[in-house]
Each structure stands twice: as C-alpha cells, then as structure tokens.
Specification:
Distance between the termini: 163 Å
Bound molecules: ligand C2E, calcium ion
Number of strands: 27
Helix content: 40-55%
Radius of gyration: 59 Å
Largest sheet: 8 strands, mixed, barrel
Strand content: 15-25%
Oligomer: single chain
Number of helices: 26
Length: 797
C-alpha cells in the first residue's frame, strides 16, 4: 500500500496527474453519453462502436499522460510501434467487451463478462504500453501488484459495464462513468506501482520524445473525446425532438376516431387510443395477437394506394362480434422489417342507429307495436302461407268505445297512456304467430294465425273483452273502457288482405252500432246492409236538396179539457225508389252522417213557418237530436227560425232525449239555458228508456217530461207500469214539470192517465200525425166537437 502512495506522491508530477484525471473524467463522461445513446435504441451499433473507441482512447490517453507524469531521473522515451499497438489492441479488446455486453445486455452474467473484457482491454493497453518504454536499463514488475491491478480492473470494469447497460437512467450512467474512471485509474496506478526501472550500462534505443507525446496525446484524446461527447449531445437533442414529434403524432393518432393498429404477423406492436378502446387493451398490454380476426380476406394495400375499405365482423377475445370497416396497409417497421397498419372503425353504433330507423319505419312510436304497414306485410305473408297450404286465419279489428271521452275529459297525456296500456295488454294476449298492431288512433288490428278458425278468433275476442272487464286506473282517474271487435276469417270473408280488412272493419262497425263491448264476425249480409245504408244516405241527401222531406203534425191535448195545446212535428219521407222510409230508419243514418244538421234546420224553419198560421195559443214541438248540439250554433238557428216567421219563443217546444245529458254536460247545460231564456220550453222525450234520474232533469231545468210510450202501451194490464207512471207524474209535478203521456191508444189508458193527474196526452187515440194542411181543419173540427159535445167527448182520430 505504501508503495502505491509513494508511487503517486513521490514519483509523479502532480500537475500531469491532474491532467490525466481530467482527461479520464471527460473521457468517461463521453463514454457514458455514447452508451446512453446506444441504450436509447437507435443506431445502437454505431454508438456502441463509438463507445469502445472512446473508452480505448480515454484509457490510452490517461495511461500515457500518467506515464509522462512519472518522474524519474532516467531519460525515458517511447517506442512508437508498441505505443500505437497498445492503443489498437486495447481499444479492440475494450470495444469487444462493450459489444458483447451490449448485445447480450438483458443477461447480467453477459454484462459482467463484457465488463471483465473491458477491464482486460484496459490492462492490455497499459502493459503493452509499458513494454514500449525505452531507457538505459531493465523493466521489471512486482507480480503481486500486477495481479492486484488485473483483479481490480476486471471487477471494476465488470461493475461499470453492468451499470451502464442495465438501465438507461442518468443515475446509473453517472455511476457507470465513475466506475469506469475508477477502473482506468486503479489499473494505471496499481500498474505503475508494480513497475521497477533499473538502470543498466547499455545504450537505450531512442524513441519518441516525451514532450512531443504529451502534446500529441492530449490533443488527440481531447479531440476524440470532445467529438464523442458532441455527437452524443447533438444526438440527444435530435432524439428529444424526434420524441416530441412522435408524441405529437401519437396525440394525433389518439385523437382519431378510427382505431389504428400496427402489427407484424398479427402480433400487435402499436395502437392508438381508439384501437385500445375497441380491443379493450391497456396502454401497457402484454403480447396480444389479432388471432381471431379473419383479415386475410381484405386486400393488403401498399402505402400510397387508394384506401380500400371493407366491412367485416370482428371477433373480440370474449367471443362477441362487432361490425367494422377495415383498411389494411403495408408499412415499414422501425427495424426495417415489413409490418402492417390496420385502420378500423367500429360500426356498432351506426348499425344500431340504422336498425332503429328501420324499426321506426315499421312500428308505432307510441306503443312500439307494428304499425299499419308492417301489419299489412305480415298479414300478406300469413295469407300467402295459408293459401299455399289450404289453411285459415283471422283478422280482428278492435276499437275503443269511449276513447274520445277519455281524451276530452282527462287530456291527451292520459289518452296516450291508455293507448300504451291497451297495447301492452293486447300483446300479453298474443299466442305464437299472432300479431297485434296499432292502426292509428284508438284502433288496433290483430292477426290470429292459428288455423282453428273461427273458434280461436272468437276466443281471442273473448280475452280482449276480458282485458277491459275491470276498470283501468291511470293518473288517479278510474276509466271504464270497452272495446268493439270485428272479425273477418280467411278464406270465407275475403281472399286479399284488403278485403279482409274492409270486412273486419264492417263487422267492427256493426259491433259498435249493436251496443258496445261486443264482437261481430263478418257476415256477407253486413255488406248488403252497408250498401243499403249508403244508398239511403245518398237518397236522403237528394231528398233534402229536392225538398222531398215533409212534416206531419201530431196533436198534444190537455188531459182534462182535451183541447189541443201543441202539435209535434214529425218528419216524413217518401222516396221515388225506396218508397216510404220511416224516420226510425233514416234519422239514425242522418245522425251518423251529419245530415241531421241541415235536416234539423229544415224541420225547425218549416215547423215555425207552419205554426205561424195556427192560432196563437197553439205551440209547436220540434224533436232535436244530440248531434244538433255541440259546435253547431243551434241557438242561432232557432232564433232565426222564430224571428223570420214572426213567432215568439213561448210557442216553441224542443224535445230532446236523455242521451244529450250523457255527453258533454256543461255545454249542453249552457245551450239549454240560452234556449230557455228565449222563452222556449224544453221537453224530455222518451223518459224512462234512458239512464237519467229526475235530479238531472231538475238541474237542467226541463219544463216537460214525456213518458215513453213503452210505459203507456199496456198501462191497463200492467200494474207495475202504472206504478212507475204514477211515481213519474208525482215527482215531475214536485219539480214543477208538465207531464205528458205519449202513445196513448185507448180510452182506458187515457182514463188511468187522467186519474194519475197527467197533464197532457198524445197518441193515436187523440189523432195520428197529419199533414200540415190538415191541421186547420182538425182544429176547427175539434173545437166544434168540443163546444157541441162537451168536454168529455172523445177526440177521434
Ligand atoms: P218520437 O219523438 O217519440 O215521436 C213519436 C213517435 O210515436 C212518432 O213516430 C209517432 O208517429 C208515434 N206515435 C204517436 N202516437 C202513437 C201511438 O199511439 N202509438 C204508437 N205505436 N206510436 C205512436 P214517428 O213519426 O215514426 O217518429 C219516430 C221517431 O223519429 C220520433 O219519436 C222521433 O224520435 C224521431 N223523429 C221524427 N221526426 C223527427 C225530427 O224532425 N227530428 C228528429 N231529430 N227526430 C225526429
Ligand atoms: Ca218526440
Ligand atoms: Ca217520444
């Protein structure tokens, strides 16, 4: 140890030692800089070669300047050939050490082995250089120290290289640099300590002078070291710029909607964000292959070719598929090998949207049931199938009976909810192959695909009615909803879907007309009836235009005096083709078609015109249909009829039926109040047949009550009817209403009615309806017989 310290302090020029140290430091820094570049991954072989060169030069310059710092009285020169050889051999071995370590850098033993080789290179450089010393004497070595120097170089070199190629961090690079420096210095100074120079008598061969060497070695080594360092710094800059650029490209790629995947033989090398999301990959994923993707079918495009995009089903690892658009391109990978880039766009969302749009085209938005179009398609294919196999099926049309009332009363939101609920309940009723669809509004169509017809259709209709048997509660409102169903069966009721639909519609119409909550199978007579109804309608229209409608009048008499107090106007129609049509046949048609409005107007005018010719105390009664109320300005029409004929309101009675009260109550109430304010009397016609109670009548302020003739007809034989009539009379009186009995045909009935204190009588007993021009004669006749025969004389028809 002492020998080493002596060697350093006594035998060396310290300023040159310092220079050697600086060169060694710079050289080692340069080495780790180039080593770092090699580890960064690009052009690694060049950087490792440069590293070997750098390390060789560093060790060599350190060695020579260290040698020159060696102070001795002996004149020393250097053999040029051996000096150069030491540089070459040393650099070669050191370089090989680095190459070996770098090439197998993932294995620690190999890194250490490479490092030992580096240490050996430095040692060989030193000891070959020592052999090039020229002085008059002999050179010998202390073998212990030589061995120690070799060990130190091997161990330190191994540690340095191990650190350098283990991780590419600044810390490990600096540590490696320090260790490398230590290796060079240790080897040199241990080697120098082992050296003995003994003067001899012979003349030494003269080599290159020392001062020349100092300058040359310093300059050359500095040049090499600086250029290595510079190259490393420039490269570092360039790399970080490239890294920045790469980062920018990555951001661009990550921002793309398309997934981008770079792969080599299906092994995924790189992905952008969209691709990772699509593949459900983490950024740091393990080796993953696009193994299940059958992309071979898609042609591989060369870079620069026009993009060829194809659609395929792509399979996830979990086995699920998704539709995608894919384009493949050949690319050159960083390592110069052929790779491939796949651009992929997930079409799942788009497909879902397309499916949604297609669904909307064929389904009802409110209920999501098939719409009319889809129903027709399905019905057509069912029909084709039935035709081919000689099978049967049924079409059902269903319509809610009081939907309009629900809508008006509770608003459209509740109406919509009701439709949805009905849709769901109908769907629950369906059996395999059956279809339920919404035709629009409150109308649903159903297809009973089973071939056991008409039994199954009837059973289905039963189930439909059962759905509505209990009341439906929506939005706090308790709704009583019923449905009418019409059924047409293939092939009996039509052999096209259009025919079947039309006939089911006719049947449904019939079912509605024949009382609600019922089912009707189509019958061919229905079409005949429909035709007849259509014919009646057109003839009626014509009759109204041509003035073929006339009025008859039937008198109402005071019960006790039997004097005529009023005439009821009754419509009469004799058609050229249809003959005499009773009002009970044509008035419902007029009501359904709206013709009742102009007809009613005609009746009002005509009745007022005729009444104007009668004595002032005789009133005229006109029947009004419910359809004449509503939006239509009935008050205005009545006023006009009265005024234009110069009669006052007190001469007019209006007869309405109870059904008016069932409809929109507030409106009817207001209209009736207005009419009453004109002095007009309001009579309740056909009392007892409907559903109204006497309290209703009071609220509406009726003046008159006409007991339906059904109660009157067998009054004398049916004590129950007599009881009812008695009760109605007494209650009517208590409500200050006149009570009229209509349909009085026998004097027995008249006697009972007068004993019950009925106010007025009407019926064939008094008179049948007569033509207008007969009224005057009738009145004259009646008054003469009244005066001639007294009050008790019967008024024969
Ligand atoms: P209604 O208002 O109850 O008219 C009385 C009906 O009973 C009339 O039949 C009349 O001829 C008949 N009748 C009168 N006395 C007797 C009798 O003693 N025995 C029997 N069996 N029947 C008797 P009509 O003229 O066939 O009218 C039938 C219905 O047509 C009327 O019943 C009324 O509801 C309606 N109607 C008639 N004319 C008009 C009109 O101008 N406008 C409206 N909206 N409805 C009308
Ligand atoms: Ca009447
Ligand atoms: Ca009546």
């Amino acid at each position: 140890m002492l020998r080493i310290v002596d060697c350093l302090t006594l035998e060396h020029d310290l300023s040159l030692v310092l220079l050697a140290g600086i060169i060694c430091l710079l050289g080692c820094l340069s080495c780790v800089a180039t080593g770092g570049r090699a580890m960064a991954g690009e052009r690694s072989s060049i950087w490792v070669t440069l590293l070997g060169l750098c390390a060789g030069c560093t060790a060599w310059s350190t060695h020579f300047i260290g040698m020159l710092a060696y102070q001795t009285s002996i004149p020393i020169t250097h053999d040029l050939a051996l000096t150069v050889l030491s540089l070459l051999v040393g650099t070669l071995v050191i370089g090989s050490g680095f190459l070996l370590a770098f090439w197998r850098r993932h294995s620690r033993p190999m890194r250490l082995s490479g490092g030992i080789l580096v240490g050996a290179g430095i040692a060989s450089l030193h000891y070959i250089g020592m052999q090039g010393l020229r002085f008059p004497g002999t050179l010998s070595h202390d073998s212990d120290l030589v061995i120690a120097s070799l060990f130190a170089a091997g161990i330190l070199g191994a540690l340095a290289v191990d650190k350098l190629f283990h991780r590419n961090t600044v810390r490990s690079r600096l540590l490696a640099g320090g260790l490398l420096m230590l290796t060079i210095l240790c080897l040199h100074f241990l080697g120098m300590s082992a050296t003995r120079l003994e003067l001899g008598l012979f003349e030494a061969r003269v080599g290159v002078s020392r001062s020349f060497l100092i300058v040359t070695v310093t300059l050359v080594s500095l040049l090499i070291l600086m250029s290595g360092m510079l190259a490393a710094i420039v490269d570092q800059r360039l790399s970080s710029q490239l890294a920045l650029q790469a980062e920018r490209f990555r951001m661009l790629a990550d921002g793309a909607f398309e997934g981008l995947i770079v792969h080599q033989d299906l092994l995924i090398l790189d992905t952008n964000l969209a691709a990772r999301n699509l593949l459900r990959l983490d950024e740091e994923h393990d080796e993953r292959y696009l193994s299940d993707w059958s992309i071979e079918a898609i042609p591989l495009q060369q870079l620069g070719d026009e993009a060829l995009i194809q659609e395929i089903q792509v399979r996830h690892d979990n086995g699920s598929d998704f539709p995608a658009k894919i384009c493949r391109r050949a690319i050159m990978l960083q390592n110069g090998e052929q790779g491939e880039m796949i651009a992929i766009r997930d079409l799942t969302q788009r497909r879902e949207n397309e499916a949604r749009i297609a669904h909307l085209a064929l389904h009802d938005v409110l209920t999501d049931l098939p719409n009319r179009r889809l129903f027709n398609e399905l019905a057509n294919s069912t029909l084709e199938h039935a035709r081919k196999h000689g099978k049967s099926f049924a079409l059902l049309l269903m319509d809610l009976d009081n939907f309009k009332a629900v809508n008006d009363m509770y608003g459209h939101a509740v109406g919509d909810e009701l439709i949805q609920l009905v849709g769901r309940r109908l769907t629950d009723l369906m059996q395999e192959g059956d279809v339920v669809a919404r035709q629009g509004g409150d109308e649903f169509s159903l297809l009973s695909a089973s071939t056991r017809q008409p039994e199954d259709a009837a059973a289905l209709a039963e189930r439909i009615h059962a759905v509505f048997a209990s009341s439906i509660v929506l939005d706090g409102a308790q709704l009583q909803v019923e449905a009418s169903v019409g059924i047409a069966v293939y092939p009996d009721d039509g052999d096209t879907v259009a025919d079947l639909m039309r006939n089911a519609d006719t049947a449904m119409y019939e079912s509605k007309a024949g009382g609600k909550a019922t089912t009707r199978f189509f019958e061919s007579r229905m079409n005949l009836q429909l035709d007849a109804r259509r014919k009646l309608e057109s003839r009626l229209r014509l009759a109204l235009e041509l003035g073929a409608l006339t009025l008859n009048y039937q008198p109402l008499v005071d019960c006790s005096s039997r004097s005529t107090v009023c005439f009821e106007a009754l419509l009469r129609w004799t058609d050229d083709e249809l003959g005499v049509v009773p009002p009970l046949d044509f008035i419902p048609v007029a009501e359904q078609t709206g013709l009742i409005v102009p007809i009613g107007e005609f009746v009002l005018r005509q009745a007022c015109r005729d009444a104007a010719n009668w004595p002032a105390h005789i009133r005229v009664a006109v029947n009004l249909s419910v359809a004449q109320f509503g939006n239509y300005n009935i008050v205005g029409i009545v006023k006009e009829a009265l005024e234009s004929n110069g009669i006052c309101g007190s001469r007019l009675e209006l007869e309405i039926t109870e059904s008016l009260l069932m409809d929109d109550k507030s409106d009817a109430l207001a209209t009736l109040a207005e009419l009453k304010s004109l002095g007009i009397r309001i009579a309740m016609d056909d009392f007892g047949t409907g559903y109204s109670s006497l309290s209703y009548l009071q609220r509406f302020g009726f003046n008159k009550l006409k007991i339906d003739r059904a109660f009157v007809s067998d009054l004398e034989n049916n004590p129950q009817n007599a009881g009812i009539v008695e009760a109605v009379v007494s209650m009517g009186k208590s409500l200050h209403m006149h009570v009229v009995a209509e349909g009085v045909e026998t004097s027995a009935q008249a006697d009972i009615l007068s004993s019950l204190d009925c106010d007025e009588l009407q019926g064939y007993l008094i008179s049948r309806p007569m033509q207008a021009d007969e009224v005057q004669a009738y009145l004259d006749d009646a008054s003469s017989s009244n005066t001639g025969e007294g009050d008790s004389a019967s008024l024969a028809a």
